Amino acid sequence: MNDQLRIPSNLLPGASSPEWINEGDNTWQLTAATLVGLQSVPGLVILYGSIVKKKWALNSAFMALYAFAAVLVCWVGWCYHMSFGDGLFPFLGWPNVALDQKFLLLPAFEGNFPNATMVYFQFVFAAITMVLVAGALLGRMNFHAWMLFVPLWLTFSYTICAFSIWSPRGWLFKIGLIDYSGGFVVHLSSGVAGFIAAYCVGPRAVKDRERFLPNNIVLMLAGAGLVWMGWSGFNGGDPYTASIDASLAVLNTHVCTAMSLITWLFLDILFFGKPSVIGATQGMITGLVCITPAAGVVQGWVAMIMGMTSGSIPWYTMMVLHKEIRVLKQVDDTMAVFHTHAVAGCIGGILAGFFADPDLCRLFYGGQDSQHYIGLAYGIFTGRPKEGFRQMGVQLLGIAFVLVLNVSITCTVCRLVNVIVPLRLHEDELQVGDDAVHGEVAYALWGDGEKLETTTANEPFSFTFQKNHEWPTVELKSSSEIQLE
Question: Where are the alpha helices (DSSP H) in 237-357?
């Protein structure tokens, strides 16, 4: 049996771990991956289910949960090797199953741990990217269309970005693009794809667009807190080792996020007079996104600057430009992922190219070409402006590549899915929400459209409720007889 599996002799039952494994690194990598997974399940599941209108709570949460499960099946089925396997093209790897036991127990392409750990770690990044795309589509996308969209977009968009930027065989990796932990691959991709998909699906119902109050802001904060704390694994796990660079990345992540949240909060108070909880949460997200491409290659004071930038520029694009630019006004982006992820991801990618410390880059990238990985500011300061401008050019090229790829692929996938099943829910379903889509509701409370009519004491009163556009009336003799189903 063991001969058939071809497991190395030192991995047979009773054998100790092979010499190439660093147990500390492997433990941290598995921990970091789990922290990132918790950002999606339950982090964004809770956040999405709480920040939307009550009638969409279940559908929104379930879109995130389904995406997490579907991505894992596709990831081990063919997408991992397309993202990190042998090169088929300079931007894509050969599709192959990532469940072969011999492969999983061998060393990963980076780090002192097995492929099984690497497959798991990279999966949670793919999953959260897909969940972020869902944020732009809440409150109107046909769930059956979403079920098809997830594997198609993952296969034809995410794998190309991941291979091009993160795989040692990828063309953008080879020319020295700095994307420490996913500012391009995860956030710029999801922000652009979500925006384009939202345009293809169309807007929410008119009443939902006019009034879309969160059903539970306190619970939303719990989900946001899981996202924030989980980012320690998001950025701290990408050195593939429990190193000093990982420690720096984690600290920079939280410094930038706190500064971004406070900056956004002050702008809300200055221009609107009140400290918005939802606004502060948006500032938290933009800070997390902005620092991601630069977390371990910039100094702490730069993280502060990036936090102020990510708390102000996306605030301006969301609160001012979105209301003035026609293209932005026409797209109903439910969770504003274009501003919080695409805009903030672009800012982080550009600032990484400007502030990347060459000494810190050597810690992260190792003995790579010395002409790569030097921020423009350091290039000018050290008398190497040509190399600094080159780095900025590479960063801008990466942004352009991700934009073009995701606009074209997302449009194509949406059109293909729409041929099979409508992208958008029927208008009647849009009015009802969860009950029409899933036959279930999130809360057993008084629903939309209910009306309680009372009369004088000791007299009968009528209780009317709306369901499926019908108005049956139930006559009750006293309040004690009211029962909500």
Answer: 244-272, 277-291, 300-316, 322-324, 326-330, 337, 344-355
